[in-house]
Amino acid sequence: MKCSPSLKNQYDSYAAYFPTINEIFKSSSFVGFEKKHLVPSLIVKHYIKVLHKYNNGDEIFVAMTEAIVEKYGEQMDLSEEALEIYISILIYWEIHECDIYNENKKEVS
Hints:
Largest sheet: none
Structural class: mainly alpha
Low-confidence stretches: none
Distance between the termini: 13 Å
Order of helices and strands: HHHHH
Helix content: 55-70%
Mean pLDDT: 89
Shape: globular
């Protein structure tokens, strides 16, 4: 998947959180078995919904983030900005885990 340098830079800055997310998902002390699969499947579901609507990774990323924040924003005790950051980190983590963004899309101009 082709993405802009700005999106790649943001990905790189959030990559520092991936080991922490992995530890949280490995430990049953933090997250129950069913919830370990809930977040990744939710992200994949939203990815599939927008994959063919947009031409590049940047547009797909924005659409996914906005859709998830809109759907779950009122259920969370966070500001919209904070929720966007957390959702972004989880989407980047799913990219890192190679669960999404494997499709060939046009390069961002």
